[in-house]
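Lab notebook: predicted structure, single chain.

Context: the supervisor wants predicted structures on file for every construct in the current expression panel, including those that have not yet been purified. This is the next one on the list. No modifications to the sequence; it matches the entry in the shared construct table.
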Amino acid sequence: MSAARVQPVVLALPGNAELAGGLARRLEAVDGAVTVRRFPDGETYLRIDTAVAGRTVLLASTLDRPDDKLLALVLLAATARDLGATRLVLVAPYLPYMRQDARFQPGEGVTSTYVGRLLSSAVDGIVTVDPHLHRHRSLADVLQVPGVCVHAAPEIAAWIARHLPDPLLIGPDGESAQWAAAAAELAGAPFTVLAKTRHGDREVEVSVPGLARWPGRTPVLVDDIISTGRTMLAAVAHLRGLGTAPPMCVAVHAVFAGQAYRDLVDAGARVVTCNTIPHPSNAIDLHDLVADGVRALLGGGDG
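Prediction complete. Output recorded below exactly as produced.
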């Protein structure tokens, strides 16, 4: 007779209860309890209130605004291991620092690789959603532990097909073309890529090549991340100036620095994101795909 299955335990960092609960339900895991708070001097106190000895532990923590989260994550991982956890898997739908993937100016740090090393030192595997791997070929270039990358394009395409008649998918720049192209193919829709000139962190000039080829289509700007929103805003203004239908902005990760979300809405765009980072714009649920990614990692898959 085979030994009874030992259920994994899911531990949520603050703000990740929905992610942890969704993983526990989908994976038939224990939704564990963690206490995390600050001492008066600002240091982090944490306690794991569910037994983890002899179990695989899934650490649920999306890592937007990461600087306040990374230390708590490393401490929680160390605590779980010290208490006898046999395997630690970080489930981070948003993986930070991936955009600094080269030394663009003398003296800069290539922080994507540094953060990859830090996380790899804390856990035994990582599951994430569409990390910004522009110059890195895969997660293996960043991590020293197995990693599974889940792709949001199928769910984005399904949402677009259900809600938007006659869409034209548009990548705001060359880096976003991979997401727009994948979603367009799955949705059976045409796509193009904006021509973009960046004049600084917050100044962007764009144009849409050949837009007249698709008259009457609803423009859908698709990107992996909306952060400052400057590229999306410039694209929305350009499209509105051409008299198109009100554009839709769709992104995997709702980072939204400052007033970026409100600026896009005020500019006349509709904004929809996946639920990798909790935000009012979340309309595309990826928790099933993330759970599949965890199954792949626990079963030996690597992507």
